[in-house]
Amino acid sequence: MVSLPDDDGRIFDPEAKRWVNNPAARKRLVEPLRTMDLAALAGVDPVPVAFTVERILPIAELTLLTAPGGGNKTTLSLMLAAAMAARLDQCLGLAVTPGPAVYVGAEDSEARLHWLLHHAANGLAISFAELARRLHVVSLRQTMHAGLGHFEPSGEFEVSELHAQLADLIEQTGAALVVLDNLAHLFTGNENDRGQVTRWCAMLNKLAADTGASILLLAHTPKEDKHNYSGSTAWVNAVRSHISIEKDEFGDADVRVLKVSKGNYTRPGEVTRFRWFDHYLIRPDDLPPDVVGKLAETSRATAANETFLKCLAAMTAQGRSVSHAPGANFAPARFAKMPEARGFDQADLEAAMERLLHLGTILADQEVGKYANRTSRRGLKLADEDAQNAAQSPAQDAAQSPAQDAQSPRHKTHKTRTLNTPSPSGKEEGDLGSPSSSLGERGDRVPGWEPGDD
């Protein structure tokens, strides 16, 4: 005789003489897994993955974009979103599919986003009127929220009100691209817990699949290592599409390289190059020749400064001293023979030394050690531990202004249009940087700060 189920849905097994789970109840409660109908697919050609933006943003998929702070993630994503919304056919040399776009920024205020978008639109030669009702920008900077969801003690993930609001916005706007800036503000779990990271990314992939939108998730790389994710968990393993912005280590120090770091749908490798110019991004090949020349001079002078400091550091570590005065220990002559010189000759390094002395980055005739007889050994010395960062300023300040005063190349970067974008509120001169930038009291640049965004 079969007993009636108890309050927990169990029945008594007379043979085992104990209460057990009711198999019939389990069959009713568990939804069967959905399997693919391979017979129906036998005569159907498979469809390759399509992209919202050539090579980097697959449709209906989550893509992770990583870069260091100030690596132009925000500017790049705003330019891609604006290009799509304005129905352009390309941006930074990449083919884009026109469509509405949503940008959700958790780091920047509305005023800051206005500033960034104003210059991004100028760089694309488009107006705000062309973006109205097609580009939907949200600032969460002053909004209290709990990210896109939270994890229960049991490990279950519960989506938040913000997730519901985002899903509604995507549905209402028909967004083809959704930018989430950035991971640190929207993921509230333990980034070192692989299970939580995987489930959270699965939530975004489901949102992308349900809406058909490409979701671009921005994330910082940690400063202490070169991994393309934060924390010890490999975020890249939780996504099928991962792109990164990196420096061109063997070329122009101001050029950034956009790469496919993990491409399950396309070949990994370099996609395009760009540089920050006049508060927007532009490919080096799209700059006018006169601007290219000035920027090249700036970049080479900056690289020479850095090389001089590397040579000085190597000499100091070896217990050797060099002098600013011509002679046997003349620093530029000694440095030009070192492996660290990287092709800079004595004249280049002498000019770098004069710039660094003028700035106070290095000091002449300083005590740098002791001889065996305990007398002072004197020579060139770094002024302080931050000197290497400050070294980038002289060359940039000398050439950046005239280069930006030259004819703007935006008219031929993407397409020709009459600009009628309204001026942003606030200051018109200078980019004050992102909230994490090092700024003076009036927004002035301080040593080590480079224009860009987080």
Structure description:
With 454 residues, the protein is an alpha/beta fold. The chain folds into three domains: 1-31, no CATH class; 51-286, 3-Layer(aba) Sandwich (Rossmann fold); 291-395. Helices cover 33% and strands 21% of the residues. The chain is built from 14 helices and 19 strands. The strands form six sheets. The protein has a nine-stranded mixed beta sheet with strand order 9-8-12-13-5-14-15-16-17, with helices on both faces. β6 and β7 (94-95) form a beta hairpin. The radius of gyration is 28 Å and the shape is elongated. The model is unreliable at 386-412 and 415-451 (pLDDT under 50).
Write the layout of secondary structure elements.
Blueprint (H helix, E strand, L loop, with lengths): L9 E4 L4 E4 L1 H7 L8 H4 L9 E3 L3 E2 L3 E6 L5 H13 L4 E2 L2 E2 L5 E5 L4 H15 L3 H4 L3 E5 L9 E3 L5 E3 L1 H13 L3 E5 L1 H4 L7 H18 L2 E7 L20 E7 L7 E9 L5 E9 L2 E3 L6 H29 L13 H5 L10 H14 L2 E9 L5 E7 L4 H4 L1 H14 L4 H4 L41
Parallel strand pairs: 5-13, 5-14, 8-9, 8-12, 12-13
Antiparallel strand pairs: 1-2, 3-4, 6-7, 10-11, 14-15, 15-16, 16-17, 18-19
Features:
Rossmann fold; alpha/beta; single chain; 3 domains; 14 helices; about 450 residues
